[in-house]
Amino acid sequence: MSTLQKKRGGNCMLLDKVNCPSDIKDFSVDQLRVLAEEIRQFLIENLSITGGHFGSNLGVIELTLALHQVYNSPVDKIIWDVGHQAYVHKILTGRKHLFPTLRKYKGMSGFPKRAESEHDMFDVGHSSTSISAALGYAIARDLKREQSKVVAVIGDGAMTGGMAFEALNHAGHVKSDMVVVLNDNEMSIATNVGAITNYLTKLRVDPHYSSFKKDLAGILQKIGSVGNKTEKYLKRLRDSLKTLLVPGMLFEEFGFTYMGPIDGHDLVMLKKYLEQAKNTRGPVLLHVVTQKGKGYAVAADAPDKMHSVSVGFNEKRGSAPKLKPAALTYTKVFGDTLIKLAKQNEDIVAITPAMSIGSGLVSYAEQLPDRFFDVGIAEQHAGTFAAALACAGKKPVLAIYSTFLQRAYDQVIHDICIQNLPVVIAIDRAGLVGEDGETHQGAFDISFLRCIPNITIMMPKDENELQQMLYTATEYKDGPIALRYPRGTGVGVKMDGEYKLIPIGRSETVREGDDVAILALGPMVHVAEQAAEMLSHDGVNARVVNMRFAKPLDESLLVELAERRIPIVTVEEAAIAGGLGSAILEFYAQKRIAGVELYPMGLPDHFIEHGSPQQLLDSVGLNAQTLADDVKSMVPLKQKRA
Ligand SMILES: Cc1ncc(C[n+]2csc(CCOP(=O)(O)OP(=O)(O)O)c2C)c(N)n1
Ligand SMILES: CC(=O)[C@@H](O)[C@H](O)COP(=O)(O)O
Ligand SMILES: [Mg+2]
């Protein structure tokens, strides 16, 4: 029995009766309010067991209920931006029984997935796609002469992304019927930043805007209804008055009808305005104000910390129990090292596209605010901004998750690499991130960066090597340098007290052996060492090499291995296509070095779902046992040759 049921003396809950959107169609507002509280309790209880995105979901309960009452999903299309706030939508669309499996291996995704439900209209995980997706649906509907409605729900954080404005620009031009619900909770993951945010704040809090709006509505109406020869002039006057005084004018100028701001927890208002928006011709932007973490004091007071919660967070404690971590996280080592380096080198500037917390830059921002830039969810801008800082003699460190760097690909090529600028790209969450699943795995960065001229790519085997590589990167002046490191904790090694330069393109042999060479990148070095130990019990002497660099390669090592005919296994937590293994194969092919036995191990050619990182690594065979088995299967080949 749930806590809420217990509170109600075991009475049946409304939520028990809700299995699809039609189940709430006839609910009164009072019933919806009760249901909202039941859903709140459901989320708190379930997420304390599974973890997941928390504050945003608590904030959209009323909005989601109203959307599903007003719209007729799946005929009408409800499209979520980022999708981390779609849990309530999942509850209402037949998936509440799947919550114990949320973000678990083979369980329910934390994001909308078309394969999961007919109510999920667009797969998502990255920000600022919803308006483009909604417009695509709207135009397709028009072309097919269908009658459905389309609504995008986008947060104020996601609204800082350039793609959202590209889509507004297009939607306002083509004027297809669609509604954009702007869910403004004044938060991205951290506090939202930028001029758009300031503008939304003005719309929310400036009393002039609201009172002018009321007075003006009548005047503009009258002007609009005047006929004949003065009409043209008065219309112009009306438009300039509107420009000065009408709230949401920015969106109006984009060709949208602006409505709001309204209280996004008031079900009466929500239903009224959603109905109105739904029945208005052309694109409408409905500005809804919500509170992230609504109804759960700890999350409402610290929305940044409770954006997502870990397994074991608890209603009474409010957060997960603090277990003493086995080791420092790579992110923490990055952030702490960057502070030390920036204090020694005043050219260093840190940039984050809206991920200050996740990238470990909170303390840096507090200590060096003038040399810290949160640019909003704007990876493309972040890339070009970094390039220009480097042009002007600064040492930009662009801290970015592997998956979000995908957004800035052209900027990396066109603005950073062609100009060979000494930008440090600090790629966090490289490799499998786990529970966020396929949209967030850091699988592709080596493949998509390695083909770009001028760039250097390295990955440390542990947290100590990370600090040395970051030092090396900030000292490096010959061009762009990417430093990739994984999510989570390091291996718990002792940290050196002083910085040492890592020679560019040079590997490190961590275990000698001549039967086979395991060339590993990043923390896979430790997996390789474990495999080598297993192999030693079978009489196989495996050499283990910490490659350190995916580009440039340690060519002298590769030539030596080829000359001595030592079979090679490469192992990396990155897409096998285009990764380190591919690079080494290309090297041998280009140098016309034949006869090298090489078996590459990495992430296979499919998108990798959600689950714990270890489950996922096991599922793709990136563990010591599989590595040892694969290596063993190569040794007889060597013996045959001899
Ligand atoms: C392209 C991209 N960059 C960064 C992120 C990481 N991210 C996920 S949610 C989020 C904040 C979104 O804020 P908002 O849209 O206001 O939603 P809220 O969490 O406030 O409900 C960020 C930065 C992302 N998902 N996609
Ligand atoms: C939805 C989203 O993109 C972020 O909230 C992401 O889940 C954060 O991931 P980390 O927990 O790895 O910082
Ligand atoms: Mg927000």
From TrEMBL:
Coiled coil: none annotated. Mg(2+) binds at D156, N185. Binds 1 Mg(2+) ion per subunit. Binds 1 thiamine pyrophosphate per subunit. CDD domains: TPP_DXS, TPP_PYR_DXS_TK_like. Its EC number is 2.2.1.7. It comes from the Bacteria. Thiamine diphosphate binds at H84, G125, H126, S127, G157, A158, N185, Y296, E379. It holds the Pfam family Transket_pyr. It catalyses: D-glyceraldehyde 3-phosphate + pyruvate + H(+) = 1-deoxy-D-xylulose 5-phosphate + CO2. Its cofactor is Mg(2+); thiamine diphosphate. Pathway: Metabolic intermediate biosynthesis; 1-deoxy-D-xylulose 5-phosphate biosynthesis; 1-deoxy-D-xylulose 5-phosphate from D-glyceraldehyde 3-phosphate and pyruvate: step 1/1. InterPro entries: Dxylulose-5-P_synthase (IPR005477), THDP-binding (IPR029061), Transketo_C/PFOR_II (IPR009014), Transketolase-like_Pyr-bd (IPR005475), Transketolase_BS (IPR020826), Transketolase_C (IPR033248), Transketolase_CS (IPR049557). Catalyzes the acyloin condensation reaction between C atoms 2 and 3 of pyruvate and glyceraldehyde 3-phosphate to yield 1-deoxy-D-xylulose-5-phosphate (DXP). Homodimer. HAMAP family: DXP_synth. This is 1-deoxy-D-xylulose-5-phosphate synthase. It comes from Tumebacillus lipolyticus. The gene is dxs.
